[in-house]
Amino acid sequence: MDAPVIGFSKLSKTEKVNWLVDTYFDGNTVVHNTITRYWNQDQKLQDLHDGFSENTITNYYFPFGLAPNFLIDDKLVTIPMAIEESSVVAAASKAAKFWLDRGGFKTTIKSTIKSGQVHIMYSGLHGEMDAFYAFAKADLLQSIESINASMKKRGGGLLDIKLVNKTDVLSGYYQLHATFETKDAMGANFINTTLEQLANTLREKAKEFQGFSLGKPEVIMSILSNYVPECVVNVSVSCKIDELGTINGVSGADFARKFTRAVDIATVEPYRAVTHNKGIMNGIDAVVIATGNDFRAIEAGVHAYAARDGQYRSLTRARVENDVFTFEADFPLALGTVGGLTSLHPLSKLALQILENPSAQDLMRVTAVCGLAQNFAALHSLVTTGIQAGHMKMHLVNMLEQIGANDDEKLLLKKAFQDKTPSFSGLRESLADLRRK
Ligand code: MEV
């Protein structure tokens, strides 16, 4: 591409595709076809998807799978998961089955408070900001009453505001820290609208206030926080050591000992903690995406929580006490089951229906369970057979696709490799052998 493209967003979808194919692929019709074969023939559905984003040229599919047999708080749940990585859904299902006979998963919602901040700069004396806040507080609260009304009817709304002096970390920095309960909505729009109104009122009241000696406070920005250490669900599994049985040839006692050491390592060693938590997010993100929630917000919030004491650590904890093995985690999950994509995307709606139309709190529980299950499954393999044995077997299908095996060859090669760890070179050799025969 030699020159910037002007007015790209105004082009029709077909024009955008043609521009792309001409500019980057020399008009290649195969590339054109790759793009258009993913268009949905149902124009209404296609229009819906095009409307979710901007400059769309096609659709990007993710597999949507099911992990059944989760016993969560004594109720059987089938978890919908949207994820592209092989083994993840199988691992979740395996963990579900393992804990099904051992009491299942237990969850507790610890709190559901979210927050947002109006970030302010003022270089005058601290006492002046305190006096201004006392002067403005009632009007600040009054000014958001109409925005708050419908959320209040649902039992939520703005909970509190306070002025926070942050001048110890940044000269002249204050914030209006607001806390919210948003019930079944993720609440981003509600929180941001409320914060922007608070900021407007703050500016107006600052004009009236006579006590500033150095200009007026300046609002820098108003935005919700995706850090939600007060919107947390606890999830756990627990059973007697002898109920663990023999796991991949390892005794229950040895398994529990190695498992808890593996978690301890991820608690103290960031190199391991990141991969450990990545495995947890395999499960969490899959549910978050399937249900139309914002996985970037969840990712950012969860990782910040994992580093809340200044070091990045494991999100899960494991222990053996009085011959009882317990594995648990607290996850900060600000999720919604109404509003946003949850009610727009037909597959998010379906995912929520599969979960029997959960409240946001129930979705927090299910998502947390999937995260803990995923970590259990990963450590279950890591401390016994190693990850590759199961992983590569699941990956075999993708590998066979990549080396260009046809359906008959796939069947034969799957059989030939059922007890082996497949490698690309081994598979290619076997495929060549097959073809020679
Ligand atoms: C792979 O997606 C996730 C794992 O690496 C997680 C872990 O190491 O705990 C298997």
TrEMBL record:
Metabolic or biological pathway, per its Swiss-Prot or TrEMBL entry: Metabolic intermediate metabolism; (R)-mevalonate degradation; (S)-3-hydroxy-3-methylglutaryl-CoA from (R)-mevalonate: step 1/1
Annotated catalysed reactions: (R)-mevalonate + 2 NAD(+) + CoA = (3S)-3-hydroxy-3-methylglutaryl-CoA + 2 NADH + 2 H(+)
Annotated coiled-coil segments of the chain: none
Gene3D superfamilies noted in UniProt: 1.10.8.660, 3-hydroxy-3-methylglutaryl-coenzyme A Reductase, Chain A, domain 2
Group of enzyme by EC: oxidoreductase
Keyword Mitochondrion listed: no
CDD domains assigned to the protein according to its UniProt record, in alphabetical order: HMG-CoA_reductase_classII
GO terms, biological process: coenzyme A metabolic process
Keywords of the record: NAD, Oxidoreductase
Entry's Gene Ontology molecular function annotations: hydroxymethylglutaryl-CoA reductase (NADH) activity; hydroxymethylglutaryl-CoA reductase (NADPH) activity
Record-listed E.C. numbers: 1.1.1.88
Annotated family: Belongs to the HMG-CoA reductase family.
Protein name as catalogued: 3-hydroxy-3-methylglutaryl coenzyme A reductase
UniProt lineage: Bacteria, Pseudomonadati, Bacteroidota, Flavobacteriia, Flavobacteriales
